[in-house]
Amino acid sequence: MAKTKNQAASSMDNIYTLDGKVPLLKSIPFGLQHVLAMFVANIAPIMIVTGASGLSTQETASLIQTAMIMAGIGTLVQLFTVWKLGAKLPIVMGISFTFVSVFCYVGPKWGYEAIIGAVLIGGVIEGLLGFFAKYWCRIISPIVSACVVTAIGFSLLSVGANSFAGGSGAADFGSAQNWILGAVTLVCCILFNIFAKGHLKQLSVLFGLVVGYIVAVFMGKVDFSALEGVGIVSLPRIMPYKPVFNLSAIVSVTMIFLVSATETIGDTSAMTNTALGREATDKEISGSLACDGLISSLSACFGCMPITSFSQNVGLLAMTKVINRYTIATGAGILILAGIFPAIGAVLATLPEAVLGGCTIMMFGNIVISGLQMIGACGFSQRNITIAALSLSIGLGFTQVPDMFNIFPDIIRTIFAENCVAVVFLTAIIMNLIMPKDKEA
Predict the structure, then answer these.
(1) Among candidates 252, 293, 288, 253, which has minimal Cα distance to 271?
(2) Residue 1: is its pLDDT beyond 70?
(3) Distances (CA, A) of 191 to 13, 207, 378
(4) Tens digits of residue pLDDT in 302-349
């Protein structure tokens, strides 16, 4: 009996390793925790863009199902690789908010079909860049990666705060009920993390979400109307929209793909630094970017938006240290099932924003701290201090005042005006190239 218990403990210890085997039933809660952490953020961009592009509610619902399936497939590719696609790292994929602003410009002007055409081309370009990442990534030194990770964390803090208050545009934004739900969820996460023992401690986010959800049900904050008339099975269709290849749309969207690539590099670097205690290898960066781009093109073939790495899940990894690929794969499986069986997705979609915000605000803070730790690991030389100080002050400062970009063309404003990660990355790269290596001397 003692031997059996020791074996069970050993297998559960594998949640902290990349490749160890974990019992399926015991790994499901950890995978579900990752799904709940990103679920609302995965479907929200679809709803925003389809609304701006004039698509019907039926089309939107169909694309949401497709988005969940593609997110699950993309995550599995990152976890286990297909040819040269994927990093073999616990990177969770989903629909990115990075593209929302440019899609809300392209969609109303040239139609949703132009979005699909641009994603097909832009994804292939990012994927090809990924294959050759070991050549051009040499200009991305550790201090550049550290600044990008820090910027990602800071950029997400407002996202967490918006969720905590009920979600941007909500009629009851900032209401007492939302404050109560967010606070209850956050406190439950913290208390569970303090008092839980062993491996259960790493389920603090799931515990907070469950308690917050139950409280929300009793407060009447959960809308179950989405469950009415839900079908049994829903499968994605190939090429539901005929792609339109508009040059202006392709150029605009491809530029955002490059911004998304910087975020993926930052996410991959943050994950390996905080969870594995080492730098990401060229092969991992290359596979991660190639997956990002080519899976996005595959997503477009099914009428859906680009799939990219999710920073909130990097924050969850940093907080829990649960990095086992097979454990995270259960989350990918849940996403695919949620896409195939609409009822599962509809239930997960009822999670109130305020409950999600109570958990994510802590996770996003972990990304900020991870970035600062990476800056510290690079060393506080005068050169590194100058690069970090200037890139973060310009990136975070300028994008707080987007009107200062009004003198620039639309494409520049779309990419940089409110995207601090892109500005930080560009500034850090330029500073890294022009600052003399022997600055200390």
Answers:
(1) 288
(2) no
(3) 22, 10, 34
(4) 999 999 998 778 888 888 889 999 999 999 999 999 999 988 877 877
The DSSP symbol for 273 reads I
Cα distance from N-terminal residue to C-terminal residue, the chain: 65
Angle between helices 247-271 and 112-131 (to 10 degrees): 50
Whether the pLDDT of residue 2 is over 50: the answer is no
Closest CA to 264 of 282, 279, 285, 295: 285
Nearest partner of 365 among 135, 154, 54, 126, judged by Cα: 154
Q: Cβ neighbours of residue 152 under 8 Å, at least 6 residues apart?
A: 263, 266, 267, 270, 311, 367, 371, 421
Q: How far apart are CA 244 and CA 235, in angstroms?
A: 24
From residue 125, give the alpha-carbon distance in Å to each of 16, 117, 200, 255. Answer: 35, 13, 43, 10
Q: Whole-angstrom Cα distance, residue 226 to residue 218? A: 18
Location of structure tokens 């955002």:
256
Domain that holds residue 59: 17-434
Residue 401 in any domain: the answer is yes
Contact by Cβ (8 Å): 288, 89: yes
Does residue 63 lie in a domain region? Answer: yes
CA-to-CA distance for 129 and 135, rounded, in angstroms?
Answer: 10
Give the up-direction half-sphere exposure of residue 15: CA atoms within 13 A in the CB hemisphere.
Answer: 26
Please provide the DSSP assignment of 137-163 as one string. GGGS-HHHHHHHHHHHHHHHHHHHHHH
Residue 233 pLDDT greater than 80, yes or no: yes
Tally of domains in the chain:
1
Quick check: 123 and 300 in contact, CB under 8 A? yes
